[in-house]
Amino acid sequence: QQQVKQSPQSLIVQKGGIPIINCAYENTAFDYFPWYQQFPGKGPALLIAIRPDVSEKKEGRFTISFNKSAKQFSLHIMDSQPGDSATYFCAASSGTYKYIFGTGTRLKVLA
Amino acid sequence: GAGVSQTPSNKVTEKGKYVELRCDPISGHTALYWYRQSLGQGPEFLIYFQGTGAADDSGLPNDRFFAVRPEGSVSTLKIQRTERGDSAVYLCASSPSPLSPIADTQYFGPGTRLTVL
Predict the structure, then answer these.
(1) pLDDT at A97
(2) Chain A positions with Cβ closer than 8 Å to B
(3) Average of pLDDT values for B79-93?
């Protein structure tokens, strides 16, 4: 119930491609779904977040799609760049509370 | 400072020793979280403070782990009798007051990499 399942584990795309990372959850009490980007040796940095009352949110080149009935959400990175190469984590929380993180997706964008 | 800071950035210790890891949250943030991140994994929750009190310590793996936040700002994670399995990156995060419109957002520090030999 507390798990957040993330896929794929790793992803390689060409520059300009649109990598898509998917997450699924079970706990319907979750009401906040952030995505974090992490570079080696650094802490996770917030990219974008969504709440269940909207189906899509865009910030710059990053888009979250949210499907409440399927209990799934995904991150799309438009016009991906080599500098986007990092590990991406989805997470979920209920209220102002602890995050449950996915297992991460290692993205490599080829120049 | 502008962000969450953690010290030390790296800590190497021997099995059985005691270690303390420090977290300075963003000024004014009332909530503070500790997570542990093993290699190739997502962060796992350890403990959550709202103000000075531990609101949820259900993620602490055993009684060798303890954390304090005596004045509602800086927090220290304490690990007694360290074991090799404690080796990981320990991350601290903070978030604003529950009354803030961005209370759900956690801001992470760079982490402390703990290595137990």
Answers:
(1) 81
(2) 6, 32, 34, 36, 41-46, 49, 89, 91, 93, 95-104
(3) 97
